Amino acid sequence: MASALIAYEKKSNKNKLKFDTVKFYFNKGQNMPKKITNRFSVSYLQILDENGKVDKKLEPKIPDKDLISMYRWMVMAREFDERMLKLQRQGRIGTFGPSIGQEAAHCIPAYLMNEKDWMVGAFREAGARLIRGETMEQALHFYNGYEEGNAKPEGSNILPVSIIVGAQALHAVGIGYSLKYRKVKDAAVVTFFGDGATSEGDFHEAMNFAGVWQVPVVLICQNNQWAISLPRHKQTRSATIAQKGIAYDVPGIQVDGNDPLAMYVASKEALERAKSGGGPTLIEAVTFRMMMHTTADDPTKYRTDEEVEGWRPKDPLIRMKTYLINKNIWSDTKEEEMRAEVKKEIDEAVKNFEANPSFDSALVFDHTYGNKHYTFEEERTEFLAERAKEAENVKA
Amino acid sequence: MASALIAYEKKSNKNKLKFDTVKFYFNKGQNMPKKITNRFSVSYLQILDENGKVDKKLEPKIPDKDLISMYRWMVMAREFDERMLKLQRQGRIGTFGPSIGQEAAHCIPAYLMNEKDWMVGAFREAGARLIRGETMEQALHFYNGYEEGNAKPEGSNILPVSIIVGAQALHAVGIGYSLKYRKVKDAAVVTFFGDGATSEGDFHEAMNFAGVWQVPVVLICQNNQWAISLPRHKQTRSATIAQKGIAYDVPGIQVDGNDPLAMYVASKEALERAKSGGGPTLIEAVTFRMMMHTTADDPTKYRTDEEVEGWRPKDPLIRMKTYLINKNIWSDTKEEEMRAEVKKEIDEAVKNFEANPSFDSALVFDHTYGNKHYTFEEERTEFLAERAKEAENVKA
Amino acid sequence: MSKLNMVQAINLALQEKMKDDDGVVVLGEDVGVDEGVFRVTAGLLEKYGEERVIDTPLAESGIIGTSIGMALTGMKPVCEMQFSGFSYLIMHQLEGHASRMRQRSLGAWSVPLVVRMPYGGGIRALEHHSESRETFYAHIPGIKTVIPSSPRNARALLVSAIEDPDPVIFMEPKRSYRAFREDVPDKIERMELGKAQIVQEGNDITVISWGAMMRPVIKAIEESQKEFNASIELIDILTVSPLDEKAIIDSVMKTGRVVIVQEAPKNVSISSEIVARINDKALLYLEAPVKRVTNYDVVTPYFSRELDFIPSQGRIKRAIKETLDF
Amino acid sequence: MSKLNMVQAINLALQEKMKDDDGVVVLGEDVGVDEGVFRVTAGLLEKYGEERVIDTPLAESGIIGTSIGMALTGMKPVCEMQFSGFSYLIMHQLEGHASRMRQRSLGAWSVPLVVRMPYGGGIRALEHHSESRETFYAHIPGIKTVIPSSPRNARALLVSAIEDPDPVIFMEPKRSYRAFREDVPDKIERMELGKAQIVQEGNDITVISWGAMMRPVIKAIEESQKEFNASIELIDILTVSPLDEKAIIDSVMKTGRVVIVQEAPKNVSISSEIVARINDKALLYLEAPVKRVTNYDVVTPYFSRELDFIPSQGRIKRAIKETLDF
Ligand SMILES: Cc1ncc(C[n+]2csc(CCOP(=O)(O)OP(=O)(O)O)c2C)c(N)n1
Ligand SMILES: Cc1ncc(C[n+]2csc(CCOP(=O)(O)OP(=O)(O)O)c2C)c(N)n1
Ligand SMILES: [Mg+2]
Ligand SMILES: [Mg+2]
User: Full-prediction pTM beyond 0.80?
Assistant: First the structure.
């Protein structure tokens, strides 16, 4: 793949900021001398379409074992989300936001990351978290209201879930700055956010800092068409999210986010660009949130079944499976075996999770600050005394 | 003037948000099927160049009396700023930020506004404020540290100076919403901000809300190349500020902000667009801050004399004067007369201002809230008692 | 008279004021089609249309900033922060503009807007959905901060907030949204902002609280009255800023003993200010130190731990006992 | 030992820590070429280059948000808010991330950053350049808020703040930036955060203050000692959160009389918390109500009015007298 895919055409007067040095581009054949000084475009990338048809010119060469592995992760993410939905309905965990339907958009880039890369996510990248080394037990603890879910996996740089929409993109840019400053080789940052997040000021500031600093950051917008009840076209008037990169001179591309091959090519190129000093990239992964926003949400209030059904054939898992089968490296038997394996892994994780249902509350006093102040130690003592009295009352 | 000037070319899939409905535009003659889906461009407008040469095809028809009046206002702004600089050096007012060099960028749009229009400024539009009805006395009171400077002029909708960079753009969009909701005819909002302001999240949110709501707002960026010590190219990597409109589907244009005719044409078109339901426009007025950021600033720390001198020939006042002279409606005698008049007006304002050097402090208790709460009345009593004791001490 | 829960009561106030005044608009994230994530804005879009019930882009500063613009033109925006945990994004617009516009212009301009925001813990929600940070707002001169505790006062206070000439932060105890119902009169009701309510009179001790804490407080008081044979005065603060100091001072002068119960952490909070006001005006009447029952000064824990930190009925009762016994 | 003003002393601390640790970077608006609008970062760019002294785009949330990212990787960003009046733009990053990352991850992650910000009035500056809003920061668990009052303690506290494992808000009293000089030792000095300083001991009354107010306070005390023949204890709080409660309580137990002087408005402020702590731990030792000398609860007026509102030497002296006479 040439690295020209993710770029808008630039014929700009960049770095020549005094307007008198601007070179004008006249539109020939026009009466009015409309002096166009800058032209931009936004591209769209799809390789494997929803009918399983592959654009051979663009098809990446991916080893079979990686293809299968990526598929397995996507299945794992799907099955795990479905299990969590059940657990939530049974009151065994709290509110959570499933990412069903968006697996390609976040699993593929996560799969392409290495140990030195940093992942800075929002809250709808369940699969990516697993791929980057968080365990299912952790996710269960997190959604069961315990900070224990945010433990850092050995040898993996992954930040906890970030719920304040958009804020984490700035952290990613700061981490990118560190990587560049420390001259860390072969390392980049991948940050995820939704279409809704692009409306927040923090997204803007992150894009702008990323552009000015030319940091190794890949900004992936999982454009799943909805921000809770707000449809994409009410979120912003721009035709694409990708074109928002133009505001910051950050290359942007719109990708079929349900196409694992397109996500592979775009993420790989963006990661390579980042690691070779080429700066940030914005990837708009066009996908769809197949489920509710969170388990506390009722999507029938704001969208039709038809819309959801219309997206079902575009499912990234179906598409990947078809591709594997067409490549003769997959079969229904293999699928069955794999699903069974995955389910067993999940069963085990749930069992482990439930064996460990609650944790010490006083821990909070240990981790509010990194060093001790006597006033907080006093508060801890008070807390423990109150908890003891509370327990007595319960007993009594 | 056709209204096609301020627009980027759009071949977009707007309003067809499902990606499967996107129509691809293939770049012919390219090997790789790069599917360009959206194209954009940014234009630059200059009509009267720094040598006084007029682009006849673009020259607007402006009545002589308006031309002279606009010129007079720009001279007024310049002379007043220069007087304030003196007053500041003499300690007769506090810190202030001169707008010398930027007169065309803000006076011309202000001149085109009517009584129903709203002006929502930042802090570097001295001339626009005068044109919209604020008095010089007010400006002097304001920069002398008295809220009295913010009185609302009769029959003019102008908000007080807004110092929090970028914040005011959102107020403008909200006012635009009201005008639209109330179906106020022939009314729009003009908001000003600097190149630095475009980095703030609030600028982004304002642009996005303006785009989504299609409100009658003209957003004018006085790109004066500097935000205190930060040069334009370190503020953002984009070649123009105008192209930031693309992120929100808000038409943007880059204008020679020292060219009164170009500012006239662009502002007029943007105001007309706004008033006819065409929505918001972003105007990047390319200009230069000829003086210090504020009187507390020392620009020699961060920029060269040559840079400043390079901009001197582009002065909007010189250009306008040349234009008037070439049109045979102006002369050095007229200039002298006018300058004398203007100076007299300023003399008088300063005299009035200094006749009224201080105001009641307890007023603050009247205007913190619109209705009374007894606790604040008690505080006022305490305040007055303390002030009285303080006065006694001074006497003693 | 209907039996309403707090969600319905707040909705009633919105309906009433929207009907009353076509300048009242509702805006925020998911307030329209979705009718608010807690359904507080149910029925509004259908009745008043998209122009007055506005689903905004996802941008809190955008919501408040544009609301300020609307308010400056004489409209009455009632905007919503989906959760108070996202309201820190609007601090600069509140501190810098909404609260100042009146004084800055010596009364020429004003910003009559309401910011509604569900606050507080107890509903097993994700991070940032459980804080009680009224301190931030209470410390800003020029705005008022109101926290209802029941359906009836929520309705009446919201009506008054919308009619108020200044910015009002209206913090809704989400834990109480559907916790109980109360008779709410059919006729529009108002409650003066800046005024506390003496919920019940008593002579031995004063308990002061607000918002979601009123429920455990009331239960703790009921038990305490019986068990300790005490006559307890209960004050519901309702407006945390400006404080109804007089209501507090009068009560302290009578009882000499005070327990303050708040959901927020202790450090630099409303309870601190109440203690300070008592010190200023009624120190000599105190027969015991004022007892503060608050959250701890720790980072708000996730939901499985949070109830260990928020004042419980038991803790409140013990504080009453301790203060009576002092 | 050199005689430095506060600007120079803060600069010294930055120089020392940048030399010490190549993870220390300075970022903010105009901190590089311009060397800060108050010249606090003078010489840093020249010595440490653009990579470590970063002139950022004009975006406060961007500054703190990227600093959080840097801090998470083991760097030590010392970022600047040009004026504290613009720091409300970073509240969500502070409350939502900087303060929480450690607890959220049970210690796996931490955010050791410093936010420097000049605060307070008295320099005839434009709107938003004069507030004292330490309340906001002090109320957020997980961060520390430090306010030096002199060149020497500014240098020592900033060194400690940069070495601290958690986010520290470092509020610099700009009115004191160049107001006086003090001997500052050549050898690096540290002061423990969370510890107040007994500036002078005394038996009759305790005066508590911090930041820019220390100067009028010291003058008022000097006069009061002479005129009222009183022995006055003076506490410089230095860290407004976490408060050094013990220093306060010990002093109150000795003197029984307290005056607190703060530049901020009264309502829900550090002074409120100090009164509350005294109530909690030393009520019975009080011989008079604690007297709070504060700004008024009004929208901060423009500079020609501001000095009428900020506690003056005279007002402080009168408060001391009143409290002694109670
Ligand atoms: C600053 C902020 N505002 C509001 C919310 C409440 N909220 C949580 S998710 C969400 C919608 C997010 O939409 P999008 O960015 O498209 O991500 P998606 O949920 O679709 O994955 C909202 C409004 C929040 N978490 N943070
Ligand atoms: C939110 C905020 N941050 C910082 C400042 C301090 N400040 C005042 S003006 C200014 C530069 C503004 O640059 P620009 O927007 O280009 O306007 P100009 O001064 O050039 O007219 C800065 C940093 C401020 N007033 N508000
Ligand atoms: Mg979405
Ligand atoms: Mg500028």
Answer: yes
